[in-house]
From TrEMBL:
It comes from Massilimicrobiota timonensis. SUPFAM superfamilies: Actin-like ATPase domain. The gene is ftsA. Cell division protein that is involved in the assembly of the Z ring. May serve as a membrane anchor for the Z ring. The lineage of its organism: Bacteria, Bacillati, Bacillota, Erysipelotrichia, Erysipelotrichales. Residues 5-192 form the SHS2 domain. This is Cell division protein FtsA. Keywords: Cell cycle, Cell division, Cell membrane, Membrane.
Length: 425
């Protein structure tokens, strides 16, 4: 059966939907589109009907384009209010031959969530980072290895319940189920970094519309995450203020002519103002100066967040996100951060857009889950595939239980988490 998944990323600036097929280590993109988001502010849903309408618009368009109804989506949510923990679970291997099975790994993962959470926290991802057997440790999934016991060190990601349930509720209201979920920062890293960087140390800067996320990875863990309240909006506002023009026109100029490359020629006039019969012309080079100064200011704020983890070493540093589309932004960031910085643009056909990094990373995240849990339900079944070939995701089969007053805010994803990581064996 083909592993075809739909990934939905709901952001403050755009809503993205990507449908793809995982083929070996590659992704065959079947559909990808983004539209402007209107109901999200600072990572929180402020207008539920608008968000639901936008999700439904993308789902319906993709379903029509592919000739099959999308019933499930994997969800990337903002990293706002996310917390990260390192935990572990130890279990006895039940096989008579002491061969580790997926059930042993799942049991250890369940045990790794046995620690106190804040009242408003909900676990959304439990990700194995290191496996310890009787005689050795390994990063690869040890299914089939011999050991009497198994210890799994895990990365546990949580989010605020109110934020999480809002996103799940929006997806459900749009008529689809949540297949799996994680935060943008982790999903982006799965696409933007090779495993070696995630082990040796890497910094991800996700430049959003009003906020940017800074995440630090080392030893396979997401070890640090922070928010900087700066983003693409600040650049638009700087243009509008400097040139005394409306925000919508400033945004248009930023998208159409924006660059931080000061070496660009100054012969291209892109805006003219007239005051007291005196005309003033603004060129693309003038715009580059404004944007370069704006990026410097943004990176100075981001630098204060990175300094928290500064130990004198130089880490692989990558800029992702829609706000990172600005040409030469990496050159300005390198100067301010005093470290080599590069922008990451996917080379996957059909999704060569920086705003799709998280969607592509989520596809790899799902593929990793397959290695532990077995087959996962596809988001849709294309016409040439028999419906009888649908196979349940082990431990993640969802029920149609009606909401009660205590659970109406808890969407299907919460039930999925409870099914997978409940402490019952």
């Amino acid at each position: 059966m083909k592993n075809i998944y739909a990934v939905l990323d709901i952001g403050s600036a755009t809503v993205k939907l990507l449908v793809g097929e995982v083929v070996s280590a590659n992704i065959n993109v079947l559909f990808a589109k983004k539209i402007t988001s209107h109901g999200i502010r600072k990572g929180q849903i402020e207008n539920m009907p608008v968000v639901v309408s936008e999700i439904k618009q993308l789902i319906d368009e993709a379903s029509k384009s592919l000739g099959a109804m999308i019933s499930k989506v994997a969800l990337c949510i903002p990293s706002f209010h996310a917390h990260i923990y390192q935990s572990d679970g130890i279990t006895k291997v039940n096989s008579p031959l002491d061969q580790i099975t997926s059930e042993d790994i799942v049991r250890a993962l369940k045990l790794s969530k046995r620690f106190a959470l804040k009242e408003d926290e909900e676990i959304i991802s439990v990700i194995p980072a290191m496996f310890y057997l009787d005689t050795k440790s390994m990063k690869d999934i040890p299914i089939g290895e011999k050991s009497a016991s198994l210890k799994v060190e895990s990365l546990v990601i949580t989010s605020r319940k109110k934020l999480l349930y809002g996103y799940i509720n929006a997806v459900e209201k749009a008529g689809v189920e949540v297949l799996d979920i994680t935060i943008n920062a982790y999903a982006c890293a799965k696409e933007a970094f090779d495993d070696v960087y995630l082990q040796e140390g890497a910094i991800l800067i996700d430049v959003g519309y009003r906020n940017s996320t800074i995440a630090f990875f080392e030893d396979g863990y997401l070890k640090y995450i922070a928010q900087a309240h700066v983003g693409g909006y600040d650049l638009t506002r700087k243009i509008a203020t400097s040139w005394q023009i409306p925000m919508d026109k400033a945004e248009l100029y930023k998208v159409k002519y924006g660059t931080c490359d000061l070496r660009i020629g100054d012969e291209d006039v892109i805006h003219t103002t007239s005051q007291n019969d005196v005309e003033k012309h603004f060129t693309q080079k003038d715009l580059a100066h404004v944007l370069s100064e704006g990026v410097q200011e943004i990176m100075e704020v981001i630098k204060t967040k990175i300094e928290v983890i500064n130990d004198g070493r130089s880490y692989e540093t990558v800029i992702v996100g829609g706000g990172g589309e600005l040409p030469a932004i990496d050159e300005v960031a390198t100067q301010v951060l005093n470290s080599a910085v590069r922008t990451y643009r996917p080379d996957t056909i059909g999704a060569r857009d920086m705003s799709f990094v998280s969607c592509l990373g989520m596809m790899y995240y799902l593929n990793d889950r397959l290695k532990i849990f077995g087959q996962i339900d596809s988001s849709l079944v294309l016409p040439d595939i028999s419906n009888t070939m649908s196979i349940r995701f082990k431990g993640l089969t969802k029920t149609k239980t009606a909401y009660s007053s205590d659970t109406k805010k808890k969407g299907k994803l919460t039930k999925v988490i409870e099914n997978l990581f409940s402490e019952e064996d």
